[in-house]
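Sample entry copied in:
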Amino acid sequence: MTPETAFQIVNGIAPVAWIAMIAAPRSNVVRRVILSGAFVAILASVYALIIATHFNFDGADFMSLEGVMALLNDPWAMTAGWVHYLAFDLLAGILVTRKGMDLDMPRLALLPCQLGCFMLGPVGVFLFVVLAKGRGHAWKDIALG
């Protein structure tokens, strides 16, 4: 398998989870398969496999921007980085969706938060916190997790 093939596979998996979660968050299938974290686990396993089989940590420098850029210059390393983003953004979206449903937030109000998580991870979490606080929820009630 090439890094391009792996990239295409994960890019096909993640949107399926997002579309299902946004379209029908309360359905039994979505709850069991998406909101359970199963798709995140699939992405995490792909990430672990790429790291275990293709990632070269020789000369890794995580303490400078230049070092990280050099590290991600390898196609497999960049693919691993992309899978990392996909997994964590999906996890953030799951937590926002589940907590939003727990707080009885309207689906349309939650939609910008979900889309924010999908496209820009932390932006969606930020929007969720602003929405929840704007609706009068206490910090302890909106804690994700």
